[in-house]
Amino acid sequence: xxxxxxxxxxxxxxxxxxxxxxxxxxxxxxxxxxxxxxxxxxxxxxxxxxxxxxxxxxxxxxxxx
Length: 65
Hints:
Layout: H1 10-23, H2 27-39, H3 44-56, H4 58-64
């Protein structure tokens, strides 16, 4: 596992701490969760292609269901 260091403005850190406190987690845990969400999202091109296929074949899928 790697460690990174980032620089935040004081007000950004205060906001992160407030959000973490509201959610009952640490700032580190909050940031790790947000990063995991970001990197695990499907790429836009895949999402666009799958949406197109689903829309194009919607009637067929309804008949097969």
